[in-house]
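F.,

This is the one I mentioned.
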């Protein structure tokens, strides 16, 4: 789109809107894409063009883009109580009911729910609670947090420090001291050619243990991980990975912080990703799918020992010194309860397993003969297609060629929204997709791939 073709909305946006994770020069040159309407798994732009959004927005619109029941739940709650807070012992019926529901769903027996408004806040809350937990037990030096290379955990200062992505650090002087990173479990890129899967797991666990010993076990508070790495390239762990990691964490009295922001609420083919990969977390951060992102609500579900630590720290009559103005928002809680009710009615686990298998098969079919596709991986309804310059050697494209970004742009022109994570193309569609949607995703991916392959052939002549 040239500047003289821009609509009033686009011109206004360009003049006044400061965009997240967007190249400013490209935005100034081309303008924004204006989305005006949703229709199930599709979105419609201001020209009337339809796109199937195979990323559910930002991994989040699990129930699509215009679910009427969620809107009605919000409208009804606005008529009753449009806002109240959870400071000083206040609550509201919807927040209380959602607290109970989340503890039951996560099977965090005896645990409690702490509400926040974003995944970044939820992950940062887990860090603060980990610090408090250890301090309350006479171990105030246990402060360091270990995450993994390629991980994404949010955009606040602490959450950004836990990211293992250079793009989240370079402009801000991050990570903060005390935030460390270990190897990520990428079987395609990190596993050695002569390693078995079990040997790979043992090496990853040994690397983590070496890091803990090098830093000093009495300095490490927690290890944070997504069950399946999302923005890092959609990386399911190898079998036995979390069991091996958990043994080391237990050995050195380190908490396991489970980032379920993307993986929660059915995405991986179970209610929560920890159930899919065999994690036994001490805390779980929940966001995105909790309301299908129809309202900015998130939560942390914590084990009883964390609650006991908070109580012990404040037994003299002081108050827990953490919270957010809009936490436990009654409208957000109402929307979350309705979203969970819809998931239960859809039998979301069975739905995801069925459609996930169909999507995986369709992606394999769409890419099977492509000379630039090296790997198709994932689980549930989250998959990654990794592009390579040479399938046999797995040699990647030079980053400056931006092949992944070019494929994503081509897909968009064909009416398919995907996400390029370097040269891995992400697929994380709404959980409500059907067979026709799967076919549309596969067919449009084939067209975009053919276009990029043609361009590469012409460049080589």
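My design for it:
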């Amino acid at each position: 789109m040239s500047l003289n073709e821009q609509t009033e909305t686009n011109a206004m946006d360009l003049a006044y809107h400061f965009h997240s994770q967007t190249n400013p020069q490209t935005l100034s040159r081309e303008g924004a894409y204006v989305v005006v309407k949703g229709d199930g798994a599709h979105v419609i732009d201001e020209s009337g063009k339809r796109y199937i959004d195979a990323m559910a927005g930002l991994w989040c619109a699990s129930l699509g883009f215009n679910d009427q029941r969620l809107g009605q739940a919000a409208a009804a709650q606005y008529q009753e109580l449009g806002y109240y807070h959870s400071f000083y012992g206040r609550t509201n019926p919807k927040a209380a009911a959602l607290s109970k529901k989340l503890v039951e769903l996560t099977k965090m027996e005896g645990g409690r729910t702490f509400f926040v408004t974003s995944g970044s806040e939820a992950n940062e809350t887990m860090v603060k609670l980990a610090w408090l937990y250890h301090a309350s037990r006479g171990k105030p030096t246990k402060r360091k947090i270990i995450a993994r290379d390629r991980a994404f955990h949010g955009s606040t200062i602490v959450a950004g420090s836990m990211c293992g992505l250079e793009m989240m650090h370079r402009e801000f002087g991050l990570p903060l001291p005390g935030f460390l990173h270990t190897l990520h479990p990428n079987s395609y890129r990190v596993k050695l050619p002569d390693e078995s899967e079990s040997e790979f797991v043992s090496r990853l666990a040994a690397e983590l243990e070496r890091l803990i010993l090098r830093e000093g076990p009495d300095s490490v508070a927690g290890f944070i991980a997504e069950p399946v790495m999302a923005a890092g390239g959609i990386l399911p762990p190898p079998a036995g990975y979390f069991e091996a990691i958990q043994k080391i964490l237990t050995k050195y009295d380190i908490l396991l912080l489970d980032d379920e922001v993307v993986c929660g609420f059915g995405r991986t083919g179970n209610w929560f990703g920890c159930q899919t990969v065999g994690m036994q977390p001490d805390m779980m951060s929940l966001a995105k799918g909790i309301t299908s992102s129809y309202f900015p609500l998130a939560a942390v579900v914590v084990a009883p020992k964390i609650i006991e630590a908070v109580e012990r720290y404040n037994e003299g009559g002081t108050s827990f010194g953490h919270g957010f103005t809009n936490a436990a928002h009654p409208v957000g809680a109402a929307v979350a309860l309705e979203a969970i009710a819809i998931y239960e009615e859809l039998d979301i686990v069975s739905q995801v397993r069925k459609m996930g298998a169909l999507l995986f098969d369709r992606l394999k079919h769409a890419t099977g003969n492509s000379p630039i596709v090296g790997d198709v991986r994932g689980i549930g309804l989250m998959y990654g297609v990794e592009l390579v310059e040479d399938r046999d050697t797995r040699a990647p494209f030079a980053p400056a060629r931006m092949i992944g970004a070019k494929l994503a742009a081509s897909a968009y022109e064909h009416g398919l929204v995907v996400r390029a994570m370097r040269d891995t193309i992400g697929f994380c569609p709404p959980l409500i997709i059907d067979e026709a949607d799967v076919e549309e995703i596969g067919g449009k991916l084939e067209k975009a791939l053919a276009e990029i392959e043609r361009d590469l052939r012409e460049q080589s002549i």
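The chain has 15 helices and 15 strands.

Talk soon.
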